[in-house]
Amino acid sequence: PNPPYREGVPDQYYKPAEPAYTPDRKANATFVMLVRNSDLPGIMSSMKQIEDRFNRKFNYPYVFLNDQPFTEEFKKHISALTNAPVEFGLIPQDHWVQPSSIDETRASAAREDMVKNNVIYGGSVPYRNMCRFNSGFFYRQELLQKYKYYWRVEPDVKFFCDVDYDPFLLMQDQQKVYGFTVSLYEYPTTIPTLWDNVKAFIKSNPDFVPADNAMAFLSDDKGESYNRCHFWSNFEIGDMDFWRGEAYSKFFDHLDDQGGFYYERWGDAPVHSIGAALFAKKDQIHFFNDIGYRHEPFQHCPQGEAHTKGKCWCDPGQNFDYEWYSCLNKYDQLFR
Ligand code: GDP
Ligand code: MN
């Protein structure tokens, strides 16, 4: 079709529209957003950017999950943002609430202690439910069973660059299981006994750990101690069949049996990261360098050519990659 010429407006102000993108193949993939009804403005902001930067062209579906029923208002506003299919799921109570096997006296004492020590979210039970859910239950939800790959999106994040290729197909074609944009150190007070439990698990299940794993990302002394590096899980592109597999499933159950999601405040970021780094091969973990991304208070801004190619709008000088608190150098070292 002709561009919409208007009388009196010089031709050079019009560029013909890009031809519609018709992919010859697609991955079996979905976006996943775990949110509350009150997160509506923040998740609309994130989703609008996903649509504009990537998905208006690729049309991957969305799955929204919540421990409470989504309101009609929520569903209406979300569905209006996309042409892609959108589904809304209610999380079963037993995938969300603190299990009855947890000693509440011990758990509440731990919370009070963390509040006194100003541990972020240290007093919160819902935050712990969320971390446990993201660690071991999201990929078991009914609405996600039909999908293999997922892209996790949180409220109020920013996507700075155009994503003109299909990251899900990259995962599939290169047999990746986990993709990240930002990595950093975990707060030690949230995971006092996590590493001891990891060590016990791999000692009794050595066959789950391939030779070319990414232990060197997690530990500076060959596994003796945890250096607290993890991939920031508010952004994830991953293979749910990896989480559903025997190694990670048994690993999660082992951790869950210890009760550390409640007696401490284990996050889904270190749990996923340790799982991916130990039970996958190191080259199955992908750094999405070309996806410019911000979740407060850190951002990854592509540098140089990648910035130009993605038409990124972030300031290249504002980039967490090699700041002192970033773990990207440890990821790089895996491949040296
Ligand atoms: P932070 O990034 O660690 O500060 O934690 P967030 O508050 O962003 O929570 C992480 C993710 O879980 C976000 O997608 C939230 O919307 C979601 N989330 C956190 N708590 C709850 C909750 O109680 N219910 C539901 N449905 N989602 C939650
Ligand atoms: Mn967040």
Automatic annotation (TrEMBL):
Keyword terms of this UniProt record: Transferase
Entry-linked SUPFAM superfamilies: Nucleotide-diphospho-sugar transferases
Classification via InterPro entries: Glyco_trans_15, Nucleotide-diphossugar_trans
Molecular function terms from GO: alpha-1,2-mannosyltransferase activity
GO CC entries: Golgi apparatus; membrane
TM regions (residue ranges): none
GO biological process, one term: cell wall mannoprotein biosynthetic process
Superkingdom of origin organism: Eukaryota
Annotated active site: E236
Matches recorded under Gene3D superfamilies: Spore Coat Polysaccharide Biosynthesis Protein SpsA, Chain A
Similarity annotation: Belongs to the glycosyltransferase 15 family.
Entry-linked PANTHER family: ALPHA-1,2 MANNOSYLTRANSFERASE KTR1 (PTHR31121)
Record's protein name: Glycosyltransferase family 15 protein
